[in-house]
Amino acid sequence: MMKKIACTALLSTLAFTWLGASAQQKGDAAKPRKISPDLFGIFFEDLSYAADGGLYAELIQNRSFEYSPADNRDWNSMTAWKYQTDGFGYGTISVETATPVHPNNPHYILLDIQDEGQKGVGLENSGFDGIPVKAGKNYNFSVFLNAISDQSLPVKVALVDRKGKELGSSSFTTSDKGWKKYAEQIHVNFDNDSAKLVLLFKAKGKIGIDMVSLCPEETFKNHNNGLRADLAQVIADIKPKFMRFPGGCLTHGDGVANIYRWKNTIGPVEQRVEQRNIWNYHQSVGLGYFEYFQFCEDIGAKPVPVLAAGVSCQNSGGTWKIGGTGQKGIPVEEMKAYVQDVLDLIEYANGPVTSTWGAKRAAAGHPAPFNLEYLGIGNEDKITGVFEERFRMIYDAVHKAHPEIKIIGTVGPSPKGEDFDKGWKLADQLSVGIVDEHYYEKPQWFLKNTQRYDAYNRLRSKVYIGEYASWGNTLFNALSEAVYMISLERNGDVVRMASYAPLIARIGHASWNPNLIYFNGTQVFPTVNYYVQQQFAVNSGNEYLPGVIKMKGEKTVLDTTAGVSTVRDSATGDLILKIANAGSVPVSGEADLSKIGQLPKSATLTVITGNPEVKNSTDNPQAIVPQSSVIKLQKKWAFTVPAYSLTVVRISSRSMEKHK
Ligand code: AHR
């Protein structure tokens, strides 16, 4: 009897769970629903010179002489530098480590000038593919010098063109012995895309040199140790709801020693711990965690730091080609300290100024908290026992100490497969709030998979699509992403966040293609994919309204190449209609706005369209850009959108007021 009751109870529990789950398993397509207010954001990784030589405004390459063959087998402390003796001076130059500015920054140059010659003896830096400078602008120069001889040394710092013509300069004299920071401003009188910086000492003597820095006076929001203004602005113009950083693979690193440690990236730049970049270059970490948080705040994006789950990338040690077996775990006995680092990051971001780490944030100039809400643990890791053990340690500690933080788990590098399944299983066991899915696929994959999240169980973890892109930058690629993003809006109750990846790449140094934005020293080139991302982020909402737009035509054809969505943004009250058409024929339909309430007479219509095979290039950077116009609105708005197009109609609540 007992057994029977137990069985019945179990059955009814099962039935209840099953019915409950089925009721909520799929999004109820017919009902308006709340969707994530943080749906469309950006993914930043120091990949393809995105940070050093990219967003970070520093113009001197290898400013601290820390480049080494470990970064790149052709590199050393003198990479991007040249010993300068043009005026027939002479002496000796050496790379030293005996008495550095700071132990974290061991290498420096020692010059022993025996004859200063006609011009002085010193160093020349060629920047990142040359140093771009503009006439009429000021540049902030600084250097750490260790005057070893008794006498002070006259120093000249100049920006010169390839032929040696001076573009701007400044002079000063060393004072005191020991390491000291000198700062000068250089006013530049001529434009030049590929200048060099020359630092010359004009007397006999011994001098140590380190941390040679040159930044434009104007940085994004004019912060010290700031970001390149034009590039930062193009990123800001996406109006992303969040920014993930610092990666990607960079986060979990090439071997345990290469795991990105956030604490190494804060504080005075000369004290930060530089390291090899997994993408075969170097991280000065001048753009570190403080600067990431500050940039997020500047652009109104929620910060989404991602920390390694205590394991290195499975492709560590060059195992990319054989499927990745190089995952290594931080030794278990060191995990307590690692977990503490994770907790300390939360304190650094959100803690009061009286806390240990909150005080460090305040000392960096930001007493107010950064309002950290999301924290990623792991990046597309192989789900092994080694991973699981460490992930659980971190997850449990964060969950216990900070239940307010939304933890993002990881489910491998692909939209399906072993790691995907194991990652989801672990997320189910731990009830992880959000999991991070990644996929780089053909455009056709995106068009075929627009129903992926319709079937997701609403009772399981929410999803962050942390990295996705179709393989290319043509209009067709961008539209396949647009059609897919429509499906993300429809499923914005289960897909909490999504970010195209990667974000930016320096032309000539791209370790990964495609990217959302390309740049060189002086120009920034947004792709068509960028404009699609921007349209979705700028025109996002937090309520999804089904059934407002109906497409005519054969459903099965349209289902795979076109999509429509209607969202309302409660902050502005605006209503936004989107019609994405990646097909070769125009799409017609009707938007029924009769139930929307008061309608304004007009709305803004923005269209991205053109030849599907075209991409924005350096020769034709504006080949395909959004075009906006004003349209008259009717309660039943009949439309025909062109083949290969994204159409966005924004109905402003402010103009509704006007026409009341
Ligand atoms: O976005 C480029 C790389 O793709 C990321 O670093 C990694 O997470 C993914 O494999």
Question: Your description of this structure?
Answer:
- The protein has 660 residues and is α+β, with helices and mostly antiparallel strands.
- It folds into 3 domains: 4-35 and 542-658, Sandwich (Immunoglobulin-like), CATH 2.60.40.1180; 40-57 and 220-538, Glycosidases (TIM Barrel), CATH 3.20.20; 81-216, Galactose-binding domain-like (Jelly Rolls, Sandwich).
- Helices cover 23% and strands 30% of the residues.
- The chain contains 14 helices and 34 strands.
- The chain has an 8-stranded parallel β-barrel with strand order 2-14-17-18-19-20-21-22, surrounded by 5 helices. A 7-stranded antiparallel sheet has the order 1-26-28-29-34-31-32.
- Strand 20, helix 10 (443-448) and strand 21 form a beta-alpha-beta unit.
- Helix 6 crosses helix 7 (356-363) and helix 11 packs parallel to helix 12 (528-538).
- The N and C termini lie far apart (70 Å).
- Mean pLDDT is 93; it is low at 1-24.
- Bound molecules: alpha-L-arabinofuranose (AHR).
- Alpha-L-arabinofuranose (AHR) binds next to loops.
- Pfam families: Alpha-L-AF_C (PF06964), ASD1_dom (PF22848).
- Its EC number is 3.2.1.55.
- Residues 1-23 form the signal peptide.
- GO terms for molecular function: alpha-L-arabinofuranosidase activity.
